Amino acid sequence: MKRDLQKAGIDSNLRLWLLVGIAGYLLLPWYGLEDFWTLGWVISFPLFSSDNPSGLFLISQGDSLWILPSLLTFLFSGIALRLPRANPSYSRLLMITGLSTVILVVTQGLSIGIRGWTTDWLGELFGPLNARQYGMGYGGLIFTVSALMIFCHGLASRPRKGADLFVTGAIGLVTAVVSVFVFFPIFIMLMSAFRTEDGGGSLLLFFQRLVEQKLWQVDCLVGAGPCGVAINSFLLAISVGVITTVLGLCFALIIVRTGFRFNKILRALSVVPIITPPFVIGLAIILLFGLSGAVTTTVAEWLGLNPTRWVYGFTGVLIAQTLAFTPIAFLVLIGVVESVSPSLEEAAQTLRADRWTSFKTVTLPLIRPGLANAFLLGFIESMADFGNPLVLGGNLDVLSTEIFFAIVGAQYDQSGAAILATILLGFTLLAFYFQRFWLGKKSYVTVTGKGDSGIPTQLPKRVAIPAISIVSLWTVFTFVVYGMILYGSVVELWGVNNTLTFKHYITAFGLDWKDGIVWSGAAWDSFWTTMMISVTAAPFTAAVGLLTAYLLTRQKFYGQNAFEFGTMLSFAIPGTVIGVSYILAFNVPPIEITGTGLILVISFIFRNMPVGVRAGIASMTQIDKSLDESSATLGASTWATLRHVIMPLLKSATVAALVYSFVRAMTAISAVIFLVSAEYDMATSYIIGRVENNDYGLAIAYSTTLIVVMLLAILLLQFLVGRTKIGRRHAELESI
């Protein structure tokens, strides 16, 4: 009976996707035009229109006939409607026709560009081609997605091997978008690693440059000199990963497992550093600990020593990155700590274990997924960060800054940048492997379908006191840093002329009244653009990230490990490389989106998606799969189970994904520099422009305004999403 219902659902969905694909081909513009992404073409319906031609119109005019074969293979899949669903040919036909259609669309898209054939051998094989093609439009997009869904329907309808329709479609869709917007641009970028000066390719030259001594020397470990770029990056990333994980765990444990009277303040402050442009934190640290910094000069006077430039280098970058990336660890770990079942801890105490023993033997092992994912994210963020090393690095060379200077420096070295990016990917893969090795195949389930009447255990004092001490010191330091930032926004010139003034805010966000409100401030255009792009990208980022986490934790399929690594790939690549690779990949057909707001949205989605993936994995690992099975037993579909059972238990992970994606889109620098346009100017690019013009006051005032706006947005998101409620008792914890 269940099988028949599933088949019936497949059949009805097949009809739907066939109709959607045909409608996209016949009615919608096949190619994108100048006003395409603004939907200006809707004013004049594109059917049989030369301004916004559909696929049918192009073929009727004898133009772009290369799109005809894909239509024929697509229509051939309709034969499946006349076949019995139990017939093996039913699924086989859908798989062949759907996949063939996608391959044909992709092949012709990559083969024909803005000047005809994209390669010389195609011209020699088929003769010269004078026609050109534009980037994919709504018609081509919807048609291709429909063909992909038909292929997924074929996979789901295989006899004895059929999978859930929703799961198969989700895997297919996520694989497709990750392939297009992660693998494809990075592949285009990395292919240049093998390129020689004369435009050819050399595998030997690639390996020679890969093992250069300047990358791998370890002299700093024995005090004999500096270390190589790769070693510096690795040591820094390890240090940042460990410290941010410890700090994030301290914040999470204190907030969840103690009655600390300042918990609400800690929860708010724990996420403040993530909403600040990196170079602003770097400037604040310089004004505190630089050669003429307030702390440095004061301490030097007390001790009778000469001030030094100690903050420039490994130490300064470590401080800045720890301050910037600790919120990521906290956002991941807070949900994990909240999900630990108190009943398990009570069971340990029933066996006469004290709080410390219970914490050591029960709580810590159960939060290992959160610890592993928090460390991985901190490691990757440190590897990919170039803003803090750029400001505070001094003589410290790391992979991200070397990639940046290789691309935008006086000597453009795309091949060298690609080799450095390859090394960075290697380190990421290594961290990813050790994370999986450390977790192993143990069970970390703490949320089941059974009632849980346990009361959260008070954090033992031998853990609570050191954790509160660490967090308190870090909180004071955070207060001082942001106090410096706030102070810098209300003085004439930070560090030079400390006369109080509000002119920077007035210049940036001034308002006039002339028959209504006039947004006269210089920063308003970039501010509203940034808000629009960030608000658009955040929900898609969270949705793709949590859906991917669900597939990785709840499903088993071929290529799962490669699928998981692919979702983390964009996070491991510096934003500079992402920006350049997107320009190289999406400035020409088959996808022309350079200079549009869409390319910014897409870059933010896939750049920030891994946080949603890791937060979702960490939380879902603790949710018993029996909940899914119970829901399926009651007749619920996979989509219904995900929406009504799993998602309510993932509110912390959802908040983490939404918050992180929103604030990172608001504060992104590296990729944005390459992707902004005159029409779509982002806040960070505007701020950098002010810094380059030595207008530090306005830049800091803008940054301060962004901090306030993002804090309000975070509070709103937490209010709208709420907190996870899993039917547990609560008790007042002892005040500390």
Describe this structure in words.
The chain is mainly α and 736 residues long. The protein has 3 domains: 2-162, no CATH class; 236-441 and 451-480, MetI-like fold (Orthogonal Bundle), CATH 1.10.3720.10; 527-692, MetI-like fold, CATH 1.10.3720. It contains 32 helices and 6 strands. The strands form 3 sheets. It has a two-stranded antiparallel ribbon with strand order 1-2. It has a two-stranded antiparallel sheet with strand order 3-4. A hairpin with a 3-residue loop joins strand 3 (491-493) and strand 4. The radius of gyration is 28 Å and the shape is globular. Residues 443-451 have low confidence and may be disordered.
Q: Short summary of the structure?
A:
The chain is mainly α.
* SS element count, helices: 32
Structural class: mainly alpha
Q: Classify the oligomer.
A: single chain
Measured between the Cα atoms of the first and last residue, the distance is: 59 Å
Assign an overall shape: globular
Roughly how much helix do the residues carry, as a percent range?
55-70%
Strand order of the largest sheet: 1-2
Q: Could you state the CATH homologous superfamily of the largest domain?
A: MetI-like
Tally the structural domains. 3
| Overall pLDDT metric | 80
Major beta sheet, specifics?
2 strands, antiparallel
Rounded to the nearest angstrom, the radius of gyration is 28 Å
Number of strands: 6
> Per DSSP, what share of the residues sits in E-state strands of 2 or more residues?
under 5%
- CATH topology call of the largest domain: MetI-like fold
Low-pLDDT stretches are 443-451
CATH architecture field of the largest domain: Orthogonal Bundle
The first-level CATH class of the largest domain is given as Mainly Alpha
